[in-house]
Design a protein that fits this description.
Blueprint lengths: L20 H4 L12 H8 L9 H4 L7 H9 L3 H11 L3 H7 L11 H4 L7 H15 L14 E5 L3 H12 L3 E5 L8 H4 L8 H13 L3 E3 L10 H7 L2 E4 L5 E2 L12 E3 H12 L17 E5 L3 H12 L4 E5 L11 H9 L3 E3 L2 E8 L5 E14 L5 E5 L5 E4 L2 E4 L3 E2 L3 H4 L27 E3 L2 H4 L4 H29 L1
Parallel strand pairs: 1-2, 1-4, 2-3, 4-16, 6-14, 7-8, 7-14, 8-9
Antiparallel strand pairs: 5-15, 10-11, 11-12, 11-13
Helix pairs in contact: 2-4, 2-8, 4-5, 5-8, 6-8, 9-18, 13-14, 14-15
Length: 480
């Protein structure tokens, strides 16, 4: 089968067909069409099967990418899926939303050699979508049922990944979430044009079929205390994520029409799911408005592209650094530009001006000069004096990142130790918090990060919890 590989010298990088910008501006459908089997095999055949696979090294899950690319090139898709799913709990999700241009594809050896990266994410999506279509994805069937139970707080990617791994080993797993649907950020934070909600719902059903219990509408701290939950289960995992929006310290930031990104995206996603949404004075819909989004991460890209689809009159993204220094995916920026978003680089808000009735009307901004690199290596933004200018805005969306909620207070557990940033402090070898038997994983430990890192943390937490539960079982048996 060697003739099916190393085709990067004769074949260039290719992605599935992308819907025209004018078409996709009108709906929330995914923008990429499905890879044809011959296209996926051809793209997989470009892999150089290098001795040190930097794609795998730079994948948070250490996915065996060269192995499943080889199998895909040979048409052995069922085996490719088995290899892919061995390290990744949700490959159909990562294939759609991972910033591959910053991770696996950005570090592809043939990309560095000038041949263009293998489009790994598209092949991963094709493999997994084919596996679902063919019925190869089957619910976990543990070899034996274990009596110990685990409670997981939060049904985002970290919580779901941990739940699946623990159930695989036979533990009784219950996932608690304060929302009525499960999936966390995957359901309410990420727009349909990146991740169709049917994909998430299918995976949740798959986990339920495996014997995992889900309880929605349970707000820990309000409906039950964390310590009550700890008494009900042999171990508990906190995987709540971080959802407290960072604010802007600028005059006028409290005006009507200035919204946090997650409130805006959640309202849009709920509408897409058929829910009735109270619009807070019309501030959760961009139709007919001049929209300004402040921020340069992937959440900001989700907001600008959502506003376009809602029929905004104009959409501008205000970011204090330049394109090369923005944290979001360059691929997402390109999609946004195709769809008509205007980027205002090296600019930051100075104040928000109202229309005389308490509604935002203008963003007063100033220009930014990028100075010397800071400790992280990124150039430091410096305000250019007397450089202010005005941008008309009927709706301003703040996409400045997220901080943790005050969990010790929210959960009524003052003994829960947190870092100076408010994230839960854990012993990293055991992933246990300051409360015995209570573990934590995902963004609530790491800080706001990528879905793929949350999956990795959830899988690691499941391993640590299984070791804890096995040890507790041995001690209990010895005491009998």
């Amino acid at each position: 089968m060697a003739e099916k590989l190393l085709k990067f010298v004769s074949l260039g990088p290719a992605s599935p067909d992308k819907r025209k910008a004018a078409e996709r501006r009108r709906d929330f459908g995914e923008i990429y069409r499905d890879f044809k089997p011959t296209q996926a095999a051809a793209q997989a055949s470009r892999c150089s099967q290098c001795g040190v696979p930097f794609c795998q090294v730079h994948c948070p899950l250490s996915n065996n990418i060269p192995d499943w690319l080889k199998l895909a090139a040979e048409g052995r898709l069922e085996e490719a899926y088995e290899i892919s799913s061995a390290t990744n709990t949700f490959p159909e999700i990562c294939g759609r939303i991972c910033p591959q241009d910053r991770l696996c594809e950005g570090n592809c050896v043939i990309e560095q050699a000038g041949h263009g990266a293998v489009t790994i994410g598209a092949v991963e999506r094709h493999i997994t979508d084919t596996a679902w279509e063919k019925g190869w994805v089957q619910p976990v069937r543990p070899r034996q049922e274990l009596p110990q139970s685990v409670g997981i707080v939060g049904s985002g990617p970290a919580g779901l990944a941990a739940a699946e791994q623990l159930r695989r080993q036979g533990y009784q797993v219950t996932v608690y979430d304060r929302h009525d649907r499960f999936g966390g950020l995957l359901i309410y934070g990420i727009p349909n044009f990146k991740l169709d909600k049917a994909i998430v719902a299918r995976r949740i059903q798959h986990l339920q079929d495996a014997g995992i219990f889900f309880r929605g509408g349970i707000d820990i701290g309000r409906d039950m205390s964390l310590m009550d939950l700890r008494q009900q289960h042999d171990a508990v995992l906190i995987a709540t994520g971080v959802y407290k929006a960072r604010d802007i310290a600028a005059p006028g930031s409290g005006l009507a029409g200035i919204m946090p990104a997650l409130s805006y995206l959640t309202a849009s996603n709920r509408r897409g799911l058929g829910d009735q949404v109270q619009d807070q004075g019309g501030n959760l819909d961009a139709a007919g408005k001049n929209v300004v989004v402040i921020g340069g991460g992937d959440t900001a890209m989700d907001c600008v592209r959502t506003a376009v689809r809602q029929g905004a009159r104009s959409v501008k993204c205000l970011y204090r650094r330049d394109r090369q220094n923005m944290p979001g995916s360059q691929r997402e920026v390109a999609h946004a530009e195709e769809e008509g978003v205007e980027f205002v680089w090296q600019a930051a808000p100075e104040a928000f001006l109202d229309d005389g009735a308490g509604n935002v009307k203008v963003v007063r901004a100033h220009r930014i000069h990028l100075g010397l690199p800071d400790a992280t290596g990124r150039q430091t933004p410096r305000v250019i004096e007397n450089s202010h200018f005005h941008i008309e805005a009927d709706l301003v969306i703040k996409a400045l990142g997220f901080d943790p909620e005050d969990l010790p207070q929210a959960f009524d557990v003052p003994q829960l130790s947190v870092s100076k940033w408010g994230t839960i402090r854990i012993e990293h070898k055991t992933m246990m918090s300051s409360i015995p038997g209570v573990f934590a994983a995902g963004d609530i430990v790491r800080g706001a990060s990528l879905v793929v890192w949350a999956i990795r943390d959830g899988r690691d937490a499941a391993t640590a919890m299984a070791q804890y539960l096995a040890k507790a079982e041995r001690i209990a048996k010895a005491a009998e």
